[in-house]
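FAQ

Q: What does a record look like?
A: Structure on top, sequence underneath. For example:
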């Protein structure tokens, strides 16, 4: 499986449209943690205002790709306002450490640089204007495809410099992640992982931690808990899960799960069953005249 396909297959991307319409003033966002955003500006001009950074002005039809760490406001800069469609994205319902996108800054892609997305953007706008059954689902599928294409562009343009996507492109580390993902039950040590990367233990640990912002064994544990959560949702017995992710006893697995996730496995599953993705709210604050 190619790099991007593996990333999206394993992280369960979920997109949701949360705002569409005209902005004449400032679009104020309530941004739950861990979400990335796409803003499609089809008409008018927008200024992106970020604390401590120069104003970013967008004067042509464009797509904004905003990482979860970015804090900003979108203000209309043209007399007629601006037409926006906005979507939020989260990588499944787990927010464990193995899944940082690695994008540090907002990227702006003018429509003219996204020729392969032109029909998708057209379909997106047409679907939004229509009221046909299944409209919300269709919009979300189109937006998720757009997300994949934008990540592809960010990778090609070397805008992603850390996180799992970056690491999967590293010839030394990609084999390490493939083995961890395929064999979470293996008795991994830093020495074994460093051997897969053909690096010394100290050099491997430093390189891994710098790129992933988590230690190698911290990643192994977090990945095991992610796999365990997926298995819990599928109804697999806890004792089977424990063995499948490398624990010699149900008790040791449950202790680790509690430490990492915050609840015992059975309690977490009850909470998860009644929990939906966080909702993003947005409203337009009129310009003071």
């Amino acid at each position: 499986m190619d790099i991007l396909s593996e990333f999206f297959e394993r992280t369960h991307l979920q997109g949701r449209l949360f705002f569409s319409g005209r902005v004449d003033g400032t679009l104020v966002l309530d941004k739950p943690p861990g979400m990335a955003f796409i803003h499609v500006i089809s008409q008018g001009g927008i200024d992106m205002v970020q604390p401590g950074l120069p104003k970013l002005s967008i004067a042509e039809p464009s797509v904004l790709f905003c990482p979860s760490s970015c804090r900003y406001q979108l203000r209309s800069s043209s007399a007629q306002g601006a037409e926006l469609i906005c979507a939020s994205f989260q990588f499944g319902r787990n927010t464990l450490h193995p899944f940082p996108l690695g994008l540090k800054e907002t990227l702006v892609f003018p429509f003219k640089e996204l020729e392969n997305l032109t029909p998708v953007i057209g379909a997106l706008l047409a679907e939004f204007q229509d009221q046909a059954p299944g409209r919300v689902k269709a919009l979300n599928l189109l937006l998720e495809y757009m997300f994949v294409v934008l990540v592809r562009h960010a990778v090609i343009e070397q805008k992603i410099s850390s996180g799992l996507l970056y690491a999967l492109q590293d010839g030394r580390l990609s084999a390490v992640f493939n083995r961890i993902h395929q064999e979470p039950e293996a008795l991994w040590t830093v020495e074994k992982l460093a051997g897969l990367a053909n690096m010394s233990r100290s050099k491997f640990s430093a390189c891994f931690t710098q790129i992933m912002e988590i230690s190698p064994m911290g990643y192994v544990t977090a990945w095991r808990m992610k796999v365990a959560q997926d298995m819990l949702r599928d109804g697999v017995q806890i004792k089977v899960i424990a063995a499948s992710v490398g624990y010699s006893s149900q008790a040791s697995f449950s202790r680790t799960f509690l430490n990492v996730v915050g609840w015992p496995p059975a309690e977490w599953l009850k909470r998860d069953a009644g929990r939906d993705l966080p909702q993003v709210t947005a409203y337009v604050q009129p310009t003071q005249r």
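Q: Is there anything notable about this one?
A: The domain at 3-160+278-286 is CATH 2.60.120.10 (Jelly Rolls).
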